[in-house]
Amino acid sequence: MNIKKIILAFAASAMLAGGCTSLDMDPVSDITDLNYWKTPEQFDSFVFGLHSRFRSHSWNMFLLGEARSDVFGGIPFGGEATQGMERFPYNTLNAENPGISGFGDLYQNINQMNLFISRTLHTDVLTESARNYYLGQVYGLRAYYMYQLYRSWGDVVFTEEPSLGFEVGKLAKAATPAAEIFEQVKKDIESSLSYFGSDYTIKEKKSLWSKAATLMLKADVYLWSAHRNGGEGDARTAKNALVDIQNNISRSNLDLMDTYQGVFAYDNKGNKEIIFTIHNELFEYNLWNGNNDLFPQADYLGKFYNADGTLINTSVENNFGIMRLMVKLENFKKFLPGDTRRDVTLKDVYNKVENGKLELVGVYPHKYWGVMNGSTRVRCDDYPIYRYSDLLLMLAEAKVLLGEDPATEINRVRRRAFGDAYDASTVGFPNQEVDKHPADAVLQERLFEFMLEGKRWYDLRRFGDSYVLDYTPAESARLLWPINQGALTNNPLLKQTVGY
């Protein structure tokens, strides 16, 4: 995102500032709104503004998608107080301790999407092709946001009307049933695809929504329903969406990177594996809004050891924070020998016990390595939402549901993961022990491939409640999230999530 567009995006965001409702929808004054929408550049900057706000929501989206899963758990090895964040992996959230308040602030952007759609549908400022592409993007973005809300809270408020001027006090509204929200997500997906038409262009180093992103979302949504009552019909719809991407974007523009580490390299943003990513940049924006709750402190890290018995050099391992949420040790141990994803994803930390042997005491994220700014490491890596390996593994998932062979897709991912150590007879599908149950094989592969990308909790939920209960301490009545008391107070028509 170049500097001019950053400034325009923030200008658009500033235009949308104002009071807020119980849903944190930013209203737009009638006067300001009438002075906008006069030029193509204003529409363009507004779309950049929507993506900028998407970026500001990335930490909450990460928590919603992963924090309650089996990725995390245990006491931070440096002894930090978890300050309530242990409630995520232990699944002890409740009405008094909801973990995330105000629906993760997601309604802020939904309101702006509603505004953009209403103005763009009736403008004569834009060319038809520009208008259609913008609408394809924003209907897709709104579907993505509503899908987060659906998977997290079930029944949620939905309105297509933007909040304008002094209508804020009239926005108290009862939640729409979850089934209707799910149908709205599907409706927005189809609107997005219709407006995109045959345009598969992906712009700005893949940091802007595209038709391929909408098709990835469609596959995700229909796999969700295929695991429930949608059956083979929805699984086939998901498969067709993924094959559509493969058929219309060449492998020179969209394929697996040669190495797993190359996917996340700071100097290789928007690489050929990426379909849609949240863009971060040094001096522009840091990963997850600069949140550092997953990383150790500099004060103690240098007292621990590497796997080779040497003390950790904190001038090299200088990705610091204050750890409130620790990755489970067993996740490091789950990777098979030779799987390069382990050491790209996680850094292992050891203590020396009395006999001089090393004891694994902690692991923390290594996937987002950032870049040096003088003597300080800054986490400003891009945060991928969809990439080609996700396409392959969702395609494998659809094939399993259809009774087809998922070997081609699973083995493409495994072959890249093991590199020169790949031996089809031992680690290729169907030769691992987990492969006796193909659905479990896909789910495990997704854990290894997407750990720390905000997908694991949603993956467990998509595969079915039994998976959530098997892999986490969650209760069957509390798989959704509680609503914070402030939201309930401000909107008396809202009801607390069932189970809380």
TrEMBL record:
Gene3D superfamilies: 1.25.40.390. Belongs to the SusD family. The gene is nanU. This is SusD family outer membrane lipoprotein NanU. It comes from Phocaeicola vulgatus. It is found in: Cell outer membrane. Pfam families: SusD_RagB. It comes from the Bacteria. Keywords: Cell outer membrane, Lipoprotein, Membrane, Signal. Its main location: membrane. The keyword Signal applies. Residues 373-467 form the RagB/SusD domain. NCBIfam families: NanU. GO terms for cellular component: cell outer membrane. Residues 1-17 form the signal peptide.
